[in-house]
Amino acid sequence: MLESKSETPMKPESTPPPAAVETSRGIEAIKVNTWFGTKHVLKDISMKIKPREVTAIIGPSGCGKSTFIRCINRMHEVVPGARMEGQILLDGANILELDPVLLRRRVGMVFQKAQPFPTMSIFDNVAAGLRLNGMRNHGQLSSLVEESLKRAALWDEVKDVLDKPGTGLSGGQQQRLCIARALAVSPAILLMDEPCSALDPIATSKIEELILNLKKNYTIVIVTHNMQQAARVSDETAFFLLGDLIEFGNTKQIFTNPRDKRTEDYITGRFG
Known about the structure:
34% of the residues lie in helices and 24% in strands. By secondary structure, the protein is an alpha/beta fold. The protein has a single domain, classed as 3-Layer(aba) Sandwich (Rossmann fold), CATH 3.40.50. Strands 6-7-8-3-9-10 form a 6-stranded mixed sheet, with helices on both faces. Helix 3 (122-132) packs parallel to helix 6 and helix 6 runs parallel beside helix 7 (201-214). The radius of gyration is 19 Å and the shape is globular.
């Protein structure tokens, strides 16, 4: 039977709300190089991503933006023929020395296209990761599902239809459902790969507002083609071009006084 709020009363006050497993000190990439077969995709990428800030990664298609964030939670390595050299440190630990399953619990991922589990209800979509990690107590599950949906700014819209399929929601709601699912397992870091590219302006605005609220508790890295979005939501911005990190710094500085002419040309629409 599908679970819903009506079966067991929510008791959010009795269960701590989901938050970062521990406060992350951020992410540091040191001379990261990646390949798909013989194709050299990322070239000596070195950058520090600060905790509890939003870092935007911008650049034209094919410049390595998505590859870089997939390296952070080791999704890159599951692609046949893919390899990485260099180091990515999470709280000082080399991610290549960490258990990939535990790493992906700490480093959540939201994809370009919302991907609710098609055979699951809204409730079960959010609870999936919790159950995978061994949680069976229905009261705890209910509380954490509710709190995760609230953090994803979706609770008020779905609280009466938790037993309905997640795929029945609108595109923007599905994306927030996927964010709630990622938050449920208490990550420290949230990676977002063009999370608004398929959404209308109203849904995009809700996701952007959500990002600004979430950075109080999470480190967020967002890949976006939308320059205005990067300027609105990020604290720091990295500009990638042909696999190189051209410029990285404070977002306001990048957008108003870029140090590299290639950055200025891209931001002003001369190419890309």
